[in-house]
Amino acid sequence: MSSPQHIRGIDDLGKEGIIEILELSDHFLEVSSRRIPKVPVLRGKTLAWLFYEDSTRTRLSFEKAAKRLSADTMNFSVSSSSVKKGESLRDTVETISAMGVDAIVVRHKSVGVPWMLPKWTDAAIINAGDGAHEHPTQSLADCYTITQKLGDVSGKRIVIVGDIKHSRVARSNIKAFTMLGASVALVAPPTLLPPSMADWPVDVIGDFDTAIKEADVLYLLRMQHERQEEALVPSLREYTNQYGLTIERSRLLQKSSIIMHPGPMNRGVEVSGEVPEIQNAVITNQVENGVIVRMAVLYHLLGSGVTPTEIQNEDNND
Ligand code: ASP
After folding, report:
1. Are residues 128 and 216 in the same domain?
2. Residue 173 is part of which domain span?
3. Nearest Cα to Cα of residue 50 among 5, 2, 94
4. Less Cβ crowding at N or C end of the chain, within 10 Å?
5. Contact 258/217 with Cβ under 8 angstroms?
6. 147 occurs within a structural domain
């Protein structure tokens, strides 16, 4: 049995692995700017998408990344598959695997699913989000965006605001940002913080306005109603008053600071309608870089033979 590498969480990469992906991303940014942004490095490889939860950005960006690398893809949708007939996760994975697949990109509402899959398949596993646990490729897109905009993640003060308790993006980002040398502060009502943060290398700041002033990066999170079983804030209006980013509040930011959000945004809740369009916001860059880093991730796991600097277009004309 071959033993492929996986990217199930940030710890699968470690600091070295993150840096390698960020460096590879520079090559794929260049590839993506070519007249024909398509290279044959994953020709003959097959990727399967196994999405048990909804997704727009992550799924589409993986698809686009795979196409740019000339990989074949198999699309699986829970609503139109045998999962509806009660097929288990194990049987589904073994079935997909029997068709010949080199990597499986999985999103599931249950924490830990990506760590279960290698028992049933030889394919490389990429976590596209497991419950409130991890979302490593979002985090890589975020690290790449910060590096592009601010030169480096190291030494930056990154303030993460909002529904931290239910956020897999926050968990992956806290790991990745601190591994790369940033200092991280969290701002949230106590009900939206995890019950124990004893081993989290973060500060908790009570007052949003104080935190904004020290942020190089202000990272907003979506209020994740789908994972909340009880009322965790008295009212959305009160939450927005205290923790929502309005245009007035954004004026407290330093001129060079950036505003990030992993999407989808709840405009009018964690962010007021106009904020995503102001100059400090790099939310669209995060989406663009989502494609670039996912090309790097797929190449890192499955590419062989060609070094990134030798990557030529399919038709060799560029
Ligand atoms: N898109 C991100 C995720 O899947 C963030 C969010 O949904 O709020 O976790």
Report:
1. no
2. 136-286
3. 94
4. N
5. yes
6. yes
